[in-house]
Amino acid sequence: MNVEIKKSIKPINYFDAINVLEARLKELHKNTGEELIWTLEHNEVFTAGTSYKENEIIDKTIKILQTNRGGKITYHGPGQLICYFVLDLRKKKDIRKFINVIENTIIETLKFYKIETFPDKNNIGIWYKDKNGVKKIAAIGIRVSKWIAYHGFAININNDLQNYKKIIPCGISDKGVTNLKSIIDQDYSDLSDKLIKIFISNLKI
After folding, report:
1. Phi-psi domain of 90 (left: phi exceeds 0; alpha: psi -120 through 50; beta: other)
2. What are the distances in angstroms from CA 15 to CA 12, 65, 116, 127, 151?
3. Residue 83 annotated as catalytic
4. Where are the domains of the chain?
5. Which residue, 112, 118, 119, 128, shows the most beta carbons closer than 10 Å to its own?
6. Can you name the residues that pair with 152 across neighbouring β-strands?
7. Using alpha carbons only, what angle is made at residue 12 by residues 29 and 38, rounded to the nearest 5 degrees?
8. In order along the chain (205 residues), what is the average pLDDT of each group of 10 residues?
9. Catalytic-role residue among 17, 87, 168, 170
């Protein structure tokens, strides 16, 4: 695989990031660019995918940015690791398998930190179960254009969970949201490096 790896330290504006993804998408369609995996953080922003509904906005004062990714409303902010990508599926043409790769990448990465998580075939994302119920630890939202996949996924590390009360996260009202620090308070500073290594390995399967 010929993949460019980008790791941004300072928060990236949401639309600036999307513009980078869409420019890379056009290059890949023309076979003039490399695939991309990019880890970053956003400042506080609420984004809505193509299937969101107005009644999923609880706090009507927040600003919602509409996007062309799949899914519903989610929150991004400091303390959340975002992994964006632009990846060519034209040789494999299997979206379900690609989503499985993302799910397994997150699950395998979190096992390094002794955190057991799982996917849910009815509710996209990665989930953690404790004595208080099932809670989302990672959100997934992708779009596929002519068999090139882009957008990405987000893992909650130590972000402000109160912001999820302003929306119905991903349209799911009967489950909670958590972050890694709430599960086990430990050092997650190398999480992005582990994640990228596992992601690339899983994409080669």
Report:
1. alpha
2. 9, 9, 33, 28, 12
3. no
4. 3-199
5. 128
6. 84, 141
7. 45
8. 91 96 96 96 93 92 89 93 97 93 98 97 93 94 95 96 92 89 97 97 87
9. 170
